[in-house]
Amino acid sequence: MKTALRLENISVPGRLHALSLSVDAGKVVGLIGPNGSGKSTLLSVAAGLPPGAATGRVSWGTEPVSTIAVLERARRVAWVPQEARFEFGFTVRSVVAQGRYAHGDDGAGVDEALARFDLLAVSGRPVDRLSGGERQRVLLARAVATAAPLQLWDEPLASLDPRHGLEVLALARSLARAGGTVVFSLHDLRLAQELDFLVLLEGGGLLAAGAPAEVLTPDRVRAVFGVESRLQSGLCLSLP
Amino acid sequence: MKTAPQGLVVAGFSLLLLLAVLSLSFGDVRLSPGQLIDGLLHRDEFAATILWQIRLPRLLVAALVGAALSGSGLVMQAYFRNSLASPGLLGVSAGGAAGAVVAIALGLASFSLFAVPFFATAGAFAATLVVLLLARRGASTERLLLAGVALNALLGAVTSYVLSAHTLTYERNAQVLFWLLGGLEDRSWEHVWMAAAVVPGALLLLPLGRPMDLLSLGAKEAQSLGVDVSRLRRWLLALSTVLTALATAVAGMVGFVGLIVPHILRLIVGPEHRRLVPLSLIGGAVFVVGCDLAGRAAGGLRLGIVTALVGGPFFLWQLGRSER
Q1: Listed residue (B100, B249, B251) closest to B184, CA to CA
Q2: Would A18 be classed as within a structural domain?
Q3: B224, B227, B276: best mutation site toward chain A, by most A Cβ within 10 Å?
Q4: CA dihedral A150, A152, A157, A158 (to 10 degrees)
Q5: DSSP per residue, B250-273
């Protein structure tokens, strides 16, 4: 199995402590943990973005990120922030087309990305006049338009309605089937249960990583999240 | 659908040409189109003297100053991700003016043609650094404007000190006052050469439109999409500071150009910098040449006064709009 992302002994003062992790290619990986456990920092460090780790090494595949040029990085990894502030009224289409910056073309895959996130109808609208969920979809569409094999998304489902949330999940699965890797943070443990691989953080350290059933044991869920958990049938949602 | 940028660039240049012809014809001595051509070709010595000694340098300085201030404002807005950032409001112009004033007061201006631009640039860079310290990137409008207020006051004090310390040297104080008022009176070819560095600065700015788009939506996002953010920021800051400094060195404090021109253009062509960069440079030239013409038509209002009369109300209107 090929490794898509490897973190070795990563420390960020006050955020992450000597964290090591390895993620296989072709997986949909969930990053879980209570608020302030270091999920966003981990995603940002994994994407090779500033301020970066104080110590440790991030590698994509077998190459350390520090040896990869900035432009090339954008073709390998896409990163989606939790929130974005838009000061200027760029259109939805032009923001998604920014995903092609590192490829030097404006068009390729932009329409497809817009369609995938149900944004064609609003493609001419300024991004500063969208709802929170629409903004999140714009950022995801931009990330997908980069065609980067490793996708790192910070709480992509936070403000999406049920259908768009499931579509994002379905998209992540299809990217993984095509050989890509998607790592994203989430708070919904029921959804996390269905992913290929889970990474559980607590207080800036790695608590557990592995198959959901191994990671989300009732004892651990109680210890980390302070909630009781048990499996039982409930409302089940899926795409038609 | 938005108008094609090429069309607007052509329209901008046409407008600039029209204003240039008006600007060259108009004055104490009015020149007919025939005299204008004869003068420019040195066939009419009287008209040639007026055009080549007075009006042409003034026109060129006006166009260069306008392009520089407008381009500089556009860059600062993308850098600070705030559409109210501009060289005047942030105190960078005041820094340039303070530098120029010190150079004049020390008597350096008479030594070398480049003393004033050099000191203006140094002053502007000092002001830029202070703004960076006071208002971090992505700072709120309030923080940015307050930083500007503080810096403008501080640099104003430097200028006032120089004025008060040289009350006995009337000539120098007259020169200093010139910088405070901002104007294009008595601009000579020397000033044109001083400001000529605006042209390479503007050319360096042209290819930065696309990365500026990405930067204006967030530094970390831009970096993740392939922009070398720290390098781009250094370039943008250096270019905008030098452009402001050059404009200030030749024309003194001319306010609001960098605020008003990019704003109007953004309303017309949208926020994309690939269009805004060339259009702001041309639009700035059009705006300043136009303001200079209006000031002369109004019986000799100085440029800084005209731009303030247009820009002040516009700025207040924008501030009201951004409250929403």
Answers
A1: B251
A2: yes
A3: B224
A4: -170
A5: HH----SHHHHHHHHHHHHH-S-H
pLDDT at B136 over 70: no
Q: Is B10 helix (H, G, I), strand (E, B) or coil?
A: helix
Cβ atoms of A205 and A14 closer than 8 Å:
no
- Which whole number is the average pLDDT over B273-297? 95
CA R_g for chain A: 18
Calculate the average pLDDT of chain B: 88
CA distance A72 to A63: 12
SS3 call for A181: strand
Query: What pLDDT is stored for residue A104 in this prediction?
Result: 85
pLDDT of residue B137: 57
CA nearest A210: which of A79, A29, A88? Answer: A29
Number of domains forming the structure of chain A: 1
Cα(A230)–Cα(A225) distance, integer angstroms: 14
H/E element, B225: none
B139 pLDDT band, cuts 50/70/90, is: low
- The tens digit of pLDDT for each residue in B7-28 reads 889 999 999 999 999 999 998 8
Its pTM stands at 0.89
From B296, B7, B243, select the one nearest B128 (Cα to Cα).
B243
Residues of chain B contacting A75 with CB distance shorter than 8 Å: 226
Q: Do A77 and B224 touch (CB under 8 A)?
A: yes
CATH number at residue A21: 3.40.50.300
Measured between CA atoms, the residue of chain B closest to residue A105 is B210
By CB atoms closer than 10 A (0-12, 13-18, 19+), residue B259 is buried
Q: Which domain holds residue A63?
A: 3-83+147-225
Predicted local confidence at residue B323, as pLDDT:
59
Alpha helices for B182-272 (secondary structure H)? 189-195, 198-205, 209-215, 219-224, 229-251, 257-269
- Which residue out of B83, B137, B217, B269 would a mutagenesis test of the A interface target, given it has the greatest number of A Cβ atoms within 10 Å? B217
Tell me the average pLDDT across B253-261. Answer: 92
Would residue A104 count as lying in a domain?
A: no
B144 burial level (CB within 10 Å; 0-12, 13-18, 19+): buried
Distance CA B280, CA A208 (A): 54
Q: Are strands A3-12 and A55-60 parallel, antiparallel or unpaired?
A: antiparallel
Q: pLDDT under 50 in chain A at which residues?
A: none
Q: Judge if the upstream peptide bond of residue A51 is cis by omega within 30 degrees of 0.
A: yes
Domains parsed from chain B with CATH numbers: 5-323 (1.10.3470.10)
Give the integer Cα–Cα distance in Å for A238 and B269: 43
Confidence of residue B2 (pLDDT cuts 50, 70, 90): very low
Q: In a 3-state reduction of DSSP, which class is residue A2?
A: coil
Taking an 8 Å cut-off on Cβ atoms, the answer to whether A88 and B224 are in contact is: no
A84 contacts in B (CB within 8 Å)?
A: 217-218, 221
CA angle A124, A128, A134 (to 5 degrees): 70
